[in-house]
Amino acid sequence: MRKLIVTTFLTLDGVMQAPGGPGEDEDQGFRHGGWSVPCWDDEIGAFMDETMGKPFDLVLGRKTYDIFAAFWPTAPDEAGGKPLNDATKYVASRGRPDLTWRNSVLLEGDAADAVAALKQEDGPELQVHGSADLLQTLLRHNLVDRFRLMTFPVLVGSGKRLFADGTAPASLAVVDTKVNTKGVVMSTYEPAGELVTGTF
């Protein structure tokens, strides 16, 4: 069985939209693309190298696929292109996109059912990057096995959120956490069952 790992950059107010640059994703008039860049350093790079330094395949929503496919196929290996180009890219889309990036496969039918079936197969772990809309489906169907979250000390006010309205209450266990010199909290969590409440 394959594990599904979500790796996401988040603002302190929970937004995951367009961390990498202006114009990356302007859906709903989002004007703050690139909010992660001023806080990037070697520690975050090491966190990402750890994530990408083992065999993996990708599960991507259509918009994230298009963003990745516009850059990574021609990126040099030393910039991190090789593992992404070598990975199988499983793409969730309501349409019939022309998937030109090598090793790209359209997920047929219901996305949750297709990802659940992928998890039952033998193979490397499945990683989800970006893909805010697809993540809502995966969360609703309890398909995420691990979260690797980088929370940046910035507020953007609105945008696509990882844990959007409708997220089911749940507990998470902290597997690991560290903070870089610019205040980015890099944490790994795993689902830990139902939400537990109490009284002070």
List keywords for this structure.
200 residues; alpha/beta; Dihydrofolate Reductase, subunit A; 8-stranded mixed sheet; 5 helices; 22% helix; globular
Explain the overall architecture.
This protein is α/β, with parallel strands linked by helices and 200 residues long. It has one domain: Dihydrofolate Reductase, subunit A. It has five helices and eight strands. The chain has helices at residues 42-52, 62-69, 81-86, 111-120, 132-140, and strands spanning 4-11, 56-61, 89-92, 104-106, 125-129, 146-152, 172-179, 185-191. It has an eight-stranded mixed β-sheet with strand order 4-3-2-5-1-6-8-7, with helices on both faces. The longest helix is centred in the N-terminal third of the chain and has 11 residues, at 42-52.
CATH architecture: 3-Layer(aba) Sandwich
Alpha carbon gap, first and last residue: 41 Å
Please give the domain count: 1
Q: Outline the biggest β-sheet.
A: 8 strands, mixed
* Number of helices in the DSSP assignment: 5
CATH top-level class: Alpha Beta
Number of strands: 8
SSE string, helix = H, strand = E? EHEHHEEHEHEEE
The low-confidence parts are: none
Structural class: alpha/beta
Shape: globular
What is the CATH superfamily? Dihydrofolate Reductase, subunit A
What is the CA-based Rg, rounded? 17 Å
